[in-house]
Design brief:
Strand order of the largest sheet: 5-4-6-7-1-8-14-13-9-10
Number of strands: 14
Strand content: 15-25%
Distance between the termini: 23 Å
Radius of gyration: 20 Å
CATH class of the largest domain: Alpha Beta
Shape: globular
Oligomer: single chain
Number of domains: 2
């Protein structure tokens, strides 16, 4: 049985550089940094005192207070971007069977702030066990997909994938597979994260994973720069509506692009460090190309995982060179984490939206804060330093890699 085609018909975004898709693209195309000093808690005593926070977000503008108080912030982010994407897609009860619409989401950590708050309350209350009745449903990662499903009455598959920083890409690939196999007509997919908390910052500081550039947070996220010293923690989320092509065409939907392939692999190497030769990244991209049925030479743009870590950045470039060969020097490459920070389990969603918008606008968003390219990286590679670049983009590839050696790659194509 031939696979059905899958297209993107709706987008939503809530990021450190914009609270709508339009604002997000404006931030991306203008090279805006979302990094600044932390406002969510007093970070004075932390090694890292900055992050990429979502700004000017008031949940009650979108969700009634009595409902919002039953959700962790990562769920609130997810519900808001799903609402945006559903509205953008034009899907309604009249033009789609809600029994054939799923919600497949990604989050690497889930309700960290809820867990943290409840533990503080427990200890400060002399360990008297008085827990919020919504503690568990707020904390668990799959709470977000459940809330989206309930809110919109979608009765298809409803779950959350957890694979560290690859979570959203894994969710999008699962949604893609359900639709192309004919099991679903459409799916709300994407990811969200809200780990800019004391435990989140402190935990990643303990791993020595975060930048400590406290004197200049705006330029702290600097993928591929020789002076990078770690990633900047981000928060927010993004959503895509994936839909079966013939169904979308029949209802006259706006179609952004086609999703043509997804690839997976495992490093099978280390719980936090990438494979030194980038072998897992290579396998994931190779698998995606094979799944899409295209040649490496057809890719025009890669939105890299590009976290701004000393180990991760060159390994991904090494994998790209190994797979793409001479074509590496014809493509454009950029890391939008230089602007949004690293959204962990939500990263694949915001970067997928960036890739879709790059195709739509035929513009490569820049890698900002790239002042001195790492000597380990071939200077012939177009890393799109500091300024967006207009070019033909027919095919865009987006990578996400996570702790535990999880790798997931998406490929989008212009229709």
């Amino acid at each position: 049985m031939p696979f059905k085609r899958v297209v993107v018909t709706g987008l939503g975004a809530l990021t450190p550089i914009g609270n709508t898709v339009e604002e997000y693209w404006e931030g991306l195309s203008n090279g805006v940094s979302g990094s600044d000093y932390i406002t969510r808690f007093d970070a004075t005593n932390f090694k890292t005192r900055f992050a990429c926070e979502v700004k000017n977000f008031e949940v009650t503008d979108f969700i009634p207070r009595q409902d919002a108080r039953k959700m962790d912030l990562f769920t609130q982010f997810g519900v808001v971007v799903a609402d945006q994407a559903i509205a953008d897609s034009g899907l309604t009860e009249e033009n789609v069977d809600k029994n054939k619409v799923g919600v497949i989401w990604g989050s690497g950590i889930g309700g960290l702030k809820t867990f943290e708050d409840e533990m503080f309350s427990y200890v400060e209350g002399n360990k008297v066990p008085r827990f919020n009745p919504f503690f568990i449903p707020k904390m668990i990662a799959d709470g977000v997909s459940g809330q989206i499903s309930i809110r919109h009455g979608f009765r298809g598959p409803n779950y959350v994938t957890v694979s560290a920083c690859s979570s959203a890409n894994n969710a999008i690939i699962d949604a893609f597979n359900y639709i192309r196999l004919g099991r679903l007509t459409a799916c709300v997919t994407g990811g969200s994260e809200a780990s800019n908390t004391q435990a989140g910052i402190g935990g990643f500081n303990g791993l020595k994973a975060l930048s400590e550039r406290n004197d200049d947070p705006k330029t702290a996220s600097r993928p591929y720069d020789k002076d990078r010293d770690g990633f900047v923690l981000g928060e927010g989320g993004a959503a895509l509506i994936l839909e079966e092509y013939e169904h979308a065409k029949a209802r006259g939907a706006k179609i952004y692009c086609e999703l043509i392939g997804g690839g997976f692999s495992s490093d099978a190497y280390h719980i936090t460090a990438p494979h030194p030769d980038g072998y897992g990244a290579y396998l994931s991209m190779k698998d995606a190309l094979e799944d899409a049925g295209i040649e490496a030479s057809e890719v025009d743009y890669i939105n890299t995982h590009g976290t701004s870590t000393p180990l991760g950045d060159p390994q991904e470039i090494k994998a790209i060179e190994q797979l793409f060969g001479e074509h590496t020097y014809s493509m454009s490459i950029s890391s939008t984490k230089s602007m949004t920070g690293h959204l962990l389990g939500g990263a694949g969603a915001v970067e997928s939206v960036a890739s879709v918008l790059a195709i739509m606008h035929q513009t490569v968003p820049p890698t900002i804060n790239l002042f001195n390219i790492d000597e380990a990286i071939d200077p012939r590679i177009d890393l799109t330093p500091n300024v967006a670049k207009q070019r033909t983009i027919n095919v865009a590839l987006s990578n996400c890699f996570g702790f535990g050696g999880h790798n997931a790659t998406l490929i989008f194509r212009k229709l």
